Backbone:
């Protein structure tokens, strides 16, 4: 079965306060970067999985996001799937 | 007959002995419920205590939610049994969707360990029935992720339904609407960030948590 790498970006939903992002946003001007308008900090989950095709892989990873990888109450997620070269 | 209070123990929980000690002193019989057992062993009430369940990896409470005991706790709650989540226990109950909203990092990104003042906002919960509305309690907090967030609709529901159980007098962590603790719609599940068990004797600096634990024993 083909293997896929999925990259999941988890970030705060728009409108939900992001304390880490806000702190970095306040710190950057102190280094001279006065042009920074917004900083949001999230996390990345990379996983490798086997699936019959890319659509199935994506569907499964999205289900994992709903159930565990993200908390839909405060977080949004974005899934990118790419097939790994067969050996 | 003495009330049996189940105290859930996940790998990484670290307040179960404190809760058990406080319960015992008030005449209850504490019973540790191991996270890997899918039973609540017929207890009369359940406390999900503080700590770092499953290391709090990914998000606080995110992995704990899938422990076998949580299915039994959910069933117990659905049958109307009193369930109280303290600190990490509150985080676990939100991840398990037994309580709405979520707890994220404190505004200011500081770990907070201090005694705070809480105002009792409702006495119609198993944790506050022996208190009086407006009563101010001095109870310690000890958390990094105690910043309660929820969407506007949930907040409206909490307010309209008299479901904000305790508020901070002086908000230490950025929680929306100064919320320190809430209950579910049927009022038998309560979560709060402060630790009543750590304020259960004058020698600990405050005995204000006793009224909460007494309420729980009465409801059990």
Residues:
């Amino acid at each position: 079965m083909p293997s896929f790498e999925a990259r999941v970006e988890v970030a705060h939903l728009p409108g939900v306060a992001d304390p880490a992002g806000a702190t970095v946003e306040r710190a950057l001007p102190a280094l001279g970067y006065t042009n920074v308008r917004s900083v949001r900090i999230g996390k990345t989950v990379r996983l490798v999985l086997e699936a019959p095709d890319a659509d199935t892989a994506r569907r499964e990873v999205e289900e994992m996001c709903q159930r565990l990888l993200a908390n839909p109450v405060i977080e949004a997620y974005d899934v990118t799937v790419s097939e790994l070269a067969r050996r | 007959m003495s009330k049996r209070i189940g105290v859930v123990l996940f790998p990484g929980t670290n307040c179960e002995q404190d809760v058990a000690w406080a319960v015992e002193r008030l005449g209850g019989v504490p019973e540790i419920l191991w996270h890997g057992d899918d039973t609540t062993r017929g207890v009369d009430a359940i406390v999900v205590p503080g700590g770092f369940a499953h290391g709090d990896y990914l998000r606080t409470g995110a992995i704990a939610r899938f422990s076998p005991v949580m299915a039994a706790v959910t069933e117990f709650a659905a049958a109307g049994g009193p369930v109280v989540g303290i600190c990490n226990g509150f985080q676990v109950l939100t991840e398990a969707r037994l309580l709405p909203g979520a707890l994220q990092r404190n505004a200011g990104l500081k770990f907070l360990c201090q005694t705070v003042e809480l105002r009792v906002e409702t006495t119609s919960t198993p944790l506050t029935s022996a208190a009086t509305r407006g009563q101010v309690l001095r109870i310690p907090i000890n958390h990094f992720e105690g910043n309660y967030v929820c969407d506007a609709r949930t907040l409206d529901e909490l307010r309209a339904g008299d479901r904000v159980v305790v508020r901070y007098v002086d908000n230490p962590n950025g929680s929306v609407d100064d919320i320190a603790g809430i209950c579910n719609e049927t009022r038998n599940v309560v979560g709060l960030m402060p630790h009543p068990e750590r304020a259960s004797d004058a020698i600990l600096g405050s005995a204000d948590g006793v009224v909460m634990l007494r309420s729980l024993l009465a409801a059990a």
Summary: The domain at 4-219 of chain B is CATH 3.40.50.880 (Rossmann fold). Chain B has a mean pLDDT of 97. Chain B has five helices and eleven strands.
